[in-house]
């Protein structure tokens, strides 16, 4: 009798877990899916039923000078800060995973901390110290601050990629007469490229989604897409913001596609684990 | 150990004439060189962060104990005031220096900064300073004490001088006290600020409370989901995982916009509720705590699911089966054998969600109401509107220290290497 009782409980809890999961996954995805049709609405209301279907808000967003400028700014700032963050972060990860890196337990958390420290504090501190140097209301300032925020992602992913890296490969290269730079370029780099690229995508996504630093350090000229959305919501919200949101969702799906393709390549590119 | 030393310190062709001590020395030399090379690779990033991250934050936090405005604009008066014992009114030479430097600071255009600084102590100070300087400029001052008292009788008030003396002291505890709704009163004791000026303790506890609620909500929602995802066959779980990953990757502002639209009084959710006849009039879902909790939970939930999932994925089902075959009841085995193995993931998830929530800004600013301001928002008000950098630094100091404590504990217990994305 006892086993019967427990298996019923088990069956009941298995069913409950499934229902719970369905509800949670619905909660996660529904808001994103619900706003996409609304971006094709003809009216200015944010509710169903829709009056009709049109591309009105896409036209409004895509031909708007502010949105165009915001997109260019986002791409420029994103690419520049990603480039910097990837170079600095990859170098650091190469050092951190070497045997004998001094004070690793102290330096590693320090390098990750830009991800943990509240961004408002980072942005306010950056403003406070760099305003006298003319880095406020400038592209350089926003790019530098976004680089800071992007580096932890590069450090983490490249370190993870290097964990399974076989150091005897570089030793073999140098034993065969390769100079350090050569063995890095021709042995190490090809093997860690997928994790470097993954880190770069994360750094780009961080910059592309960041608004607090832009609010503090960026001026009217440096308005990015998230900054434009922020003022769109605050000032007067119209459905063109949903059109932009829909386009951003597609863009981000493409980015995610990149990452999962890279992680598959990462697994395929590494030597078999023995 | 030998595997970590790539190049032998001694040329292999040289006769092996080294004794053990020399060998050890050579080994250590190689080790040191290796460490230096490794550190050199990380040096560019370390230097970069030193300049663009550590120095700015350090300066901002240091600003919370500094008092540069008044001593800079009125060096003599400040210095003389520091010697005043606060028993009676200050000496005539303090009055003279004050009258002279008020005019000088006003002419140099620095009085505005002093007035703004004094305004943080007492709103009446601002007008007193500006008015006095304006009037003094037009007078020929012979007796400074008489002149100041003639301009404004408040210059005969000890309290005014005491506040000026405090504003000249650096380092000062005043901002750090102000950030926890305290001040130093006339008797030199630390006392609470009047209730109408006490906003920060409430904001700190609100911030912690919201972060804690979001963390617990996320944990309760995420744990069963992570369990199911980790235990389903790969082909099913992969498709379901997409429903976690897509929101995770979707822009934070897009998701906040979505909730902003959905939670409106005439938005999708309310028209659904009224349409089904469940409520007669729209439920207030936005610009209040409900909106903040819904929006933040939605944004943080993928972090929690992914953190727990990645640990559950590595747990072998053998242990659970072993426990049951040894006679444990299914639920007992689950809680005593399975759950303890997932604690690393639960810890990583809770840490990430809690710490990221502590510094949250966007979602509470857009979905919250007047009573839902988190500490990040108050910091930005101080830096962008009030221009009170000292108080901003003090609030930041508490926030950073609080965050750092959790970071330290997490790093000790779970390890920062546990954090993974994607």
Give the C-level CATH assignment of chain A.
Mainly Alpha
Shape of chain B: extended
Average residue-wise pLDDT of chain B: 87
Roughly what percent helix of chain A? over 70%
How many helices of chain A? 11
CATH class of the largest domain in chain B: Mainly Alpha
Topology:
The complex is a heterodimer of chains A (274) and B (422).
Chain A: H1 2-38, H2 56-62, H3 65-96, H4 104-112, H5 119-130, H6 139-163, H7 168-175, H8 180-208, H9 212-217, H10 225-234, H11 240-269
Helix pairs in contact in A: 1-11, 2-11, 3-6, 3-8, 3-10, 6-8, 7-8, 8-11
Chain B: H1 20-63, H2 69-73, H3 75-83, H4 92-107, H5 111-121, H6 123-137, H7 144-151, H8 158-167, H9 174-178, E1 182-184, E2 190-192, H10 200-231, H11 234-249, H12 252-262, H13 268-275, H14 289-312, H15 318-325, H16 330-341, H17 343-358, H18 362-367, H19 375-386, H20 389-413
Task: Tell me about this structure.
The relative contact order of chain A is 0.13. Chain A is mostly helical and about 270 residues long. Chain A is about 75% helix and about 0% strand. Chain A has one domain (about 65-270): MetI-like fold, CATH 1.10.3720.10. Residues about 270-274 of chain A have low confidence and may be disordered. Chain B has three domains: about 15-65; about 70-170, no CATH class; about 200-420, MetI-like fold (Orthogonal Bundle). The model of chain B is unreliable at about 1-5 (pLDDT under 50). In chain B, strand 1 (about 180-185) and strand 2 (about 190) form a beta hairpin. Chain B is about 70% helix and about 0% strand. Chain B has 20 helices and two strands. In chain B, strands 1-2 form a two-stranded antiparallel sheet. Chain B has helices spanning about 20-65, 70-75, 75-85, 90-105, 110-120, 125-135, 145-150, 160-165, 175-180, 200-230, 235-250, 250-260, 270-275, 290-310, 320-325, 330-340, 345-360, 360-365, 375-385, 390-415, and strands at about 180-185, 190. Chain B is mainly α and about 425 residues long. The chains are: A mainly alpha (about 270), B mainly alpha (about 425). Chains A and B meet through helix 1, helix 3, helix 4, helix 5 and helix 6 of A and helix 1, helix 10, helix 11, helix 12 and helix 14 of B.
